[in-house]
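SEVERITY: medium
COMPONENT: batch folding queue
REPORTER: lab tech (J.R.)

DESCRIPTION
The queue accepted two submissions in a row. Attaching both inputs and their returned structure tokens so the on-call engineer can compare them side by side.

ATTACHMENT 1
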Amino acid sequence: MNLPPLVISIEQLSMTPSEKDFYEAVYKRSQARFDTFVDKGTVLNNYAHVFQLLSRLRQAADHPYLVLYGPVVRLWRPHILSPPSLALLLCAQFVCCVNATY
């Protein structure tokens, strides 16, 4: 089997203040859950959950919809956003919808 050569590209991107706020909220929630595993001494038993926490961070960096409307929303949505963050996200959604219609 001939596969194309592997190309790895690392880019340094910057986040807007609202994106950074959203990511920080997800990070803090993930850190709290991870710390719970550490405190209980069950990190190795919960490696799948740890991977899920890391995946959520990556998704949060890609686009907030992946976290808010992804397959495990029931675990995240109630605790992820503070009211100011939610307001910023809703404004951003409105702007995206308006821009998409023009």
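ATTACHMENT 2
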Amino acid sequence: MNATEILALWTANPAFHLATLDRGEPRVRGTAQPVEEVSLKKEIVNAPGREFLRPWVASQGLDLLKVFRVADGQARVWTMASNFAPQEPVALAGVGQGN
């Protein structure tokens, strides 16, 4: 599956669940909303540590960079010890609302 196919699938079904393999890490779920703000894309490309993006953007333009904002975000902290314990998700206030 290539990047265009993945983007088409994500656009068709923007719900997601993000987790890491580390213990005790937050798990986040929500709705991915595409962001086309040129100023934000420039900020991302020019941020320290993202120098590797600059040649790609220089040769292909900012449209190469796909940015998503999380709307209706919820988080939980998952561990093996609390795997089956009841948990209430924590709303990620302000996420995906231009904040």
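NOTES FROM REPORTER
The first helix runs from residue 3 to 12.
No errors were logged for either attachment.
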